[in-house]
Amino acid sequence: MLANEDRFESLREITDRGRAYHEQWCLRVFAGALRDLRGAKRQRRLAQLIAITDVFTWKLLRLDRRLSRNQTEVAMRELVESIVGGA
Q1: Burial (Cβ within 10 Å: 0-12, 13-18, ≥19) of residue 6
Q2: Cβ contacts of residue 4 below 8 Å, gap of 6+?
Q3: Is residue 80 within 8 Å of residue 72, measured between CB atoms?
Q4: Where along the chain do its domains lie?
Q5: pTM attached to this predicted model
Q6: Which of 7, 47, 60, 62 is geometrically suited to a Cys-Cys bond with 72, CB 3.0 to 4.6 A?
Q7: Average pLDDT, the chain
Q8: How crowded is residue 31: how many other Cβ atoms within 10 Å of its Cβ?
C-alpha cells in the first residue's frame, strides 16, 4: 500500500489513518517518556519513537537482516530503551 499511496487516494486515506493511529499509540504507550518534554525536544522524541517502532523497522530487522523473532523483539526493545531509558 505504501508504495502506491501517492497514486491512489483511497490508499492514501488508509495509510494516513495508519500513521495517525501509530502516532496516537506512541503517545499513549510512551506517555511517561514524553511527559516532561516540551516543544521541539518533545516533537523530536516522539518522531524518534514513531520511527523505531515502525513496521519498516521490524521488516528491516526481521526479514532483511534475518534476525529471529526473539532477536528482533530484543533489538526493538533495545532501540526504545536507548531513547527512553527506564521511563
Answers
A1: exposed
A2: 11
A3: no
A4: 2-84
A5: 0.84
A6: 62
A7: 92
A8: 10
